[in-house]
Amino acid sequence: MADKPVADWDALAREWDLWRADDRQPTLWWRDDDAVDVTPALDELRRVARVPLALAVIPMALERPLQERLGPYLRNWGQVRVLQHGVGHLNHAPAGAKKSEFPATRALGEIELALTVAATFLRDTLGPDVLPVLTPPWNRIGAPALELLLRLGFHGVSRFDAFPYVAKTPELPRLPPFREINTQIDVIDWRGTRGFVGAEPALGWLVAHLSARRQGVVDPGLPTGILTHHLVHDTATWRFLENLQDWLARRGELGVFQDPRALWPLP
Ligand SMILES: [Zn+2]
């Protein structure tokens, strides 16, 4: 399929070596979505992740309210940082349109109020380590709401780049401190089995994005993002995440995973 390039570990090694031959560092980052509580799956994520991780937490989901015990749990997890995953993870798109909590059709005043209340609640519940970065549910946000983020004091946004990776016109001025840093490798096969997408497509996207960065097709300075959803991982998904870290560790390259605090530094 056109949206699923395939690659194996040898192809990753070849791409990696091309970066290192130029004395460049092929940076990665890891975003995991939909946390609201301490669960066995979150325990597993903490066990599996040996690197810095950005946990996208839903502040005010109606059916899965944010649990206070998540705060102390995350404070004891040194390598995790929290991003704001929308408000309630509720669909406000018109019937028939792709799901979005912040579509261009939703009243901007309502979005502003919801985002502000949710951001305050998230910080009050989880503590000051929450980064002022929005990861919109379903990776979608309309242009008016995106502009609003600047005014509301957000430092960035994180969405998803689908393959093929091509240069995009920035929707917002690239003014510090606002940065859009996206993910590209979604390990879940949402439209198919809802299990692991498979090593070949996952590595295919990883190699393709690294290659696009190395060749300057997309911004080489922005890290390649792994997107996970701990609540739905099957054994094969966990195994792949372990294998990727093992592969990097064998090369002494685990340090390529960027700390979210460095991606969105506070002034
Ligand atoms: Zn989500």
Automatic annotation (TrEMBL):
Domain of life: Bacteria
SUPFAM superfamilies cross-referenced by the UniProt entry: Glycoside hydrolase/deacetylase
Family annotation (InterPro entries): Glyco_hydro/deAcase_b/a-brl
Protein name: Polysaccharide deacetylase
Organism the protein comes from: Dongia rigui
